[in-house]
């Protein structure tokens, strides 16, 4: 209750801002699901004049830069809120300009793909992310107890660093496209560089930072030595692990060796994380809401599965297989983005009362999870059948479309239930 009162004292300045940001982020997730459903329809029945790749660009950019970027923006400023009027004004401006860039990408990518205006808006987002990383870290250094939150800040600071590093990929796209090598190995290597440091750097370390913040905030005793060993193993492995993203080019043998070393380090880091989670799970689960227990539990399971699949991809045969069967790549990207990162973020924001279930939220999450599990099973199932030379699933695109219907429907129900959102039972916010 003391923590709630402290946060209520900062309302409406920080509380209302955080609620708005969280709700906008969820709105983007609904849009992402709708765009995904439309892409599935195009696989069933192509529409004249509609470019599939252009809409795919919109889908992916809004997923990464709309939903997850805005969700982490809200979550990070929730756990360490701005304490001065000048800082609050700065973060409000950053978030507003971010919406300009995201909406700009949403409306320009479907029309022109990678071209002048979409590149302007995506470049704008990169520059805004630099501004946020710098200002947020400066704010944390000045206003947060660095001893109490030493572990979570290590992960969060590294997450912000990897977010900045990931932008090297998009910056490289300009010269690559200018040379007319679109679609070549260098072009896709730049894309995979960006995706690697987004998925395995920025998103992964931000999730782990929020996890350790929760443990620190609730004074749950955990082995900090194990947590820091996990940090160093995962952080140092993230740089060479980029080699796993380019094995499809069949590089020199030493690149495969780098991949083996990186997955070994990742597995070592994972083992230390598992030890920490096992140590605190019994105590932590008592603090979590029922739905949050399920979401966080599934997210941690998918994190383990994600690293297991990365480990498999270090072997030449599996890397070549994934490149040839795109079902595995799409399934892996959705498993990482939705199964690991998004489920954890949804659980975290629900736990902190930045989202609420409302009357139909539980039904909405059930539908969303059903659609996610169904599509993942079909993607990996179809890939496995083709790998084994067996008969492919009949009417695969139709099945994927109807399974995908569940996701925007479920997320829409969850989003509509956010009216009258409460930060606590003591005061109603944003109504």
Radius of gyration: 21 Å
Q: Detail the poorly predicted runs.
A: 1-12, 420-431
Which CATH top level class of the largest domain fits? Mainly Alpha
CATH superfamily of the largest domain: Cytochrome c oxidase-like, subunit I domain
Largest sheet, in brief, is:
2 strands, antiparallel
CATH architecture designation of the largest domain? Up-down Bundle
Specify the structural class.
mainly alpha
Rounded mean pLDDT score: 91
Can you write the helix and strand succession as a string?
Answer: HHHHHHHHHHHHHHHEE
How many beta-strand runs? Answer: 2
Q: What percent of the residues sit in helical stretches (DSSP H or I)?
A: over 70%
Could you explain how this protein is built, in words?
The chain folds into two domains: 1-144 and 406-431, no CATH class; 147-352, Cytochrome C Oxidase, Chain A (Up-down Bundle). The chain contains 15 helices and two strands. The chain has helices at 2-9, 13-44, 52-79, 85-112, 116-143, 150-166, 168-178, 185-217, 224-238, 253-285, 290-313, 316-324, 326-351, 361-387, 396-416, and strands at 422-424, 427-428. α2 runs antiparallel to α3 (52-79), α6 (150-166) runs parallel beside α9 (224-238) and α9 runs antiparallel to α10 (253-285). The chain is globular and about 55 Å long.
